[in-house]
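Notebook p. 47: complex prediction with magnesium ion.
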Amino acid sequence: MKKTIALITGGYSGEAVISYKSAATIEQHVDREKWDCYTIDITPAGWFYVPTAGEKINIDKNDFSLTIDGKKITFDAVLVGLHGTPGEDGKLQGYFDCLNIPYTSCDTATSALTFNKRYTVAVAAFAGMAVAKSLHLFKAGTIEAVEILNTLKLPVFVKPNNGGSSIGMSKVSEAAELQNALDRAFKEDDQVLVEEFIKGREFTIGVFKSKGEIIALPITEIITKNVFFDYEAKYHGASEEITPAKVAEVIAEKVRNAARMAYAIFNCKGIVRIDFIYDEVSDRPFLLEINTVPGQTEASLVPQQVAAMGWTLKQFYTTLIEECLNQ
Ligand SMILES: Nc1ncnc2c1ncn2[C@@H]1O[C@H](COP(=O)(O)OP(=O)(O)O)[C@@H](O)[C@H]1O
Ligand SMILES: [Mg+2]
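Predicted complex, structure tokens below:
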């Protein structure tokens, strides 16, 4: 019998708009000959399925089921197309664990850990990976800008610790700008990460697992016209993304190795995308963050990398779903 998949999208944060675009791509490329697929919208107002014709149908949260025309539908697996909370930070992963429904993303612990940028670099550093020196702040006003500058060298990056899409983030080159940057970041989050600036080329790379093997996709180099890869650069085209990156093979191999190592250390599942800055002084890739539900819009980085590998998105999503069903 054909298995039934739920593609979850939406979410409770500002990233929901991106979730809908990612889910639209995934929906279009799921192999319908292999699986029945229902797109489930997870919103603060409710969780529901919207049929092509007719009224939306609420999910029964007791067992994540749908009842359509008196017939109950349960799901064999969940495909995650939801950025931000609660689909990328481990909350829904914990819920699906309780119900024993497998899903395509990282597990609860890894999702929660990697959603926190500071905890991510801490674990990576513990395993010997290169990361920027940083300070983790929990509450606005508890540390003076001058104390930060006694510990970290300018320029620094100030980021909301649990954010995404570069919202509330700034690069600070002058001591006098630091306080404003902290205030901006604390508006978005009650935790802030202040990180030393790593000078170098920026690379981002998708990694997934199939039949026990950790596979790195072709690397993308990000060349931004803005000060950094900020929201405008990400979503309004103020950056150039070159896939595959034009880079010496020795550097590419170091980035791929670091990416596969991070995937293994964090016990990742499914497709993740890892951001690095390659520091040419120490000749090492510095890990910035791990995105456990990377964007899947047609223009997104992972779909570009899948195409550069010579695969169709249909083949790629089939591999992810099969891996999830066989785990
Ligand atoms: N320590 C750093 N050194 C240099 N550039 C950085 C640093 N941290 C962040 N950036 C720049 O800011 C961008 C966004 O930071 P990132 O940590 O990936 O957050 P997110 O993508 O979730 O907004 C990166 O793609 C990079 O261009
Ligand atoms: Mg990033």
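Notes: Residues 275, 289 surround magnesium ion (ligand 2) (CB under 6 Å). The two ends are 19 Å apart (CA to CA).
Next step: compare against the earlier run before touching the bench.
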